[in-house]
Design brief:
heterodimer, A: alpha/beta, 18 helices, B: mainly alpha, 4 helices, elongated
């Protein structure tokens, strides 16, 4: 295949990727857009396979079948609640592939590169390896294979600086023409360790931001491999993901009212682990309630705002919530859902889950839209949400979530919180809301509680 | 440069509601490293390159297939909606 044909077809791929992202601006076309992108990817793969330099088809075929099967099974089996860690995993393997490409290129042609190529190899290995190990830690944290809490130790910043510093030194060495194989191994090893060290101190609540950032990293690593292999589709598609991922990361940071630097280096959530437990004993008490009482409150309310959080996702209770909502609507109660931008484990995570349960998306209201409605609501029903409802974010300057925009559930006439226990949320801090005299707690698994509520509402 | 501009331009139009599928969609797109993986695996002539190449192909294929399928599963759920609010989403 001639260079011109190849470039033209690669350009078609790029256009499909842009269309795919463009179509994501509306749920109506989004799915079609995704398939257009997939078709573009398939085209790029076929074009690449037809290049004169490409042989070893059996080897590539086996690789694609194995990788494809793993990806397919993983993507099909995963529960909607576990989606964020799945995205982290797929992101990591992409970064790993970029690092391996750099490794192999250096192995074959080390010492013969132009400065641009050598620099790109170093960047591709560095960013790809960080993205790989960082994503794996993010996966492990979200999957709760390791603690979601920030893992910190004294002098951590110094150790991290030394690791990344040595990686950069090795990278510069490669970029300036070093050709010893040890350099690239050292660089990748340092980058892998750095990826681990860089994600470990970040709390679980901030993981979505981290995944988004690592997603942008993998895009940049892909773009860097494009410079190494002199391949335009890699450069352009990689840069596209790098740019969009960076922007998405910034938008997510804004939704939490925190700068990216603060997310990455703030070790969020470590501060209050000790202070938290004592606070419950300051005279105010937590009041528990029964499903029957809550059912009566809900049935005779005019307006109920449901605030779903990760607890709902864990309990897989989205279908039951929808049923409860419909039941209340039949009784003439106005029901809306208040969706915090970072409720759940990813922005928009709650929308995905409730959409799965067929809740129409016009009753799902975003924070700015729904906050003025809380004072008119008779009941705010908080289902497994915690940090996004914590009034400390408005009032307590010492709180690690101070300044994060929250849902004003405490402004509703009554608040019912459905929760498994008094355990703090992902940010690792206590919630003042639970001590509010208007708040009652309904303890138990969200799904069980909602099923009981449905029964009680039907009976009342 | 154009790609960077387009990336920013395109993302700023996506509603928060679709940010999870968006992250997943861009995740699938960087599976384009499969092109690089095929290029190195396809021109590998010693054992080292073959092994590294095939592992890269496996990883990148998982990224591509998994990325698109997961995104589709998410978007599928936004499908059966009454069409009453669509005009607001553009």
């Amino acid at each position: 295949m001639s260079r011109t044909t190849t470039d033209a077809l690669y350009l078609v791929t790029i256009v499909t990727f842009i269309l795919a992202l463009r179509f994501l601006s509306s749920p109506k076309h989004a799915r079609k857009g995704n398939w257009i992108g997939a078709a573009g990817m398939a085209l790029a793969i076929v074009v690449t396979l037809l290049q004169d330099s490409v042989g070893n088809y059996a080897l590539i075929g086996i690789g694609m079948v194995v990788g494809g099967a793993v990806g397919l099974v993983g993507a099909r089996m995963v529960k909607m609640t576990a989606m964020p860690q799945m995205v982290a995993l797929f992101n990591g393997v992409g970064g790993g592939a970029a690092a391996l490409i750099a490794l192999d290129e250096f192995h074959r042609f080390g010492g013969t590169f132009s400065t641009v190529e050598a620099t790109s190899i170093a960047l591709s290995a560095l960013i790809g390896a960080i993205s790989f190990s960082g994503s794996m830690i993010a996966y492990a944290k979200l999957q709760e294979l390791i603690s979601g809490r920030p893992i910190v130790f004294r002098g951590q910043q110094v150790v991290n600086a030394l690791i990344i510093g040595s990686a950069v030194v090795l990278g510069v060495w490669i970029a300036s023409g070093g050709d010893q194989q040890g350099l690239i191994y050292g660089l990748i090893a340092a980058a892998l360790v750095f990826g681990v060290m860089f994600v470990l101190p970040i709390g679980g609540a901030d993981m979505p931001v981290v995944i988004s950032l690592l997603n942008a990293f993998t895009g940049l690593a892909a773009a860097a491999t494009g410079f190494v292999l002199n391949n335009n589709v890699l450069i352009v598609a990689g840069a596209l993901v790098g740019a969009s991922g960076t922007l998405l990361t910034i938008l997510m940071g804004k939704a939490m009212n925190r700068s990216i630097t603060n997310v990455l280096f703030g070790a969020f959530g470590q501060v209050q682990t000790g202070a938290g437990a004592a606070r419950v004993d300051d005279g105010r008490t937590v009041r528990a309630t029964s499903p029957e009482d809550v059912a009566v409150m809900l049935s005779f309310a005019r307006k109920v705002i449901i605030v779903p959080g990760y607890g709902l996702a864990v309990a897989q209770a989205q279908h039951d919530v929808r049923q409860l909502g419909e039941l209340l609507e039949e009784k003439g109660v106005e029901v809306v859902y208040a969706i915090h931008p970072v409720a759940g484990r990813m922005p928009g995570h709650m929308n995905v889950l409730l959409a799965e349960a067929n809740v129409p998306y016009d009753v799902l209201k975003e924070m700015d839209e729904v906050n003025p409605e809380f004072p008119q609501a008779d009941v705010a029903l908080v289902i497994g949400a915690n940090d996004v409802t914590n009034p400390a974010a408005r009032t307590d300057t010492s709180s690690p979530i101070y300044g994060m925009p929250i849902l004003d559930v405490d402004k509703a006439a009554a608040v019912v919180v459905m929760k498994r226990s008094m355990a703090p949320g992902f940010a690792g801090i206590d919630n003042e809301l639970y001590l509010d005299p208007r708040t009652t707690m309904l303890f138990g698994d969200a799904k069980d509680s909602i099923v009981k509520l449905i029964g009680a509402v039907k009976a009342s | 440069m154009l790609a960077i501009f387009l990336g920013v331009e395109v993302i700023s139009k996506v509603p928060t509601m679709l940010h999870t599928p968006l992250m997943s969609g861009t995740n699938a797109i960087h599976g384009i490293v499969i092109v690089g993986a095929i290029l190195i695996a396809g021109s590998a002539d010693d054992t080292f390159s073959k092994i590294v190449g095939v592992v890269a192909v496996v990883l990148a294929s998982a990224n591509v297939v998994g990325g698109f399928v997961v995104t589709d599963r998410m978007l599928q759920m936004f499908r059966r909606r009454e069409p009453r609010r669509e005009s607001n989403d553009d």
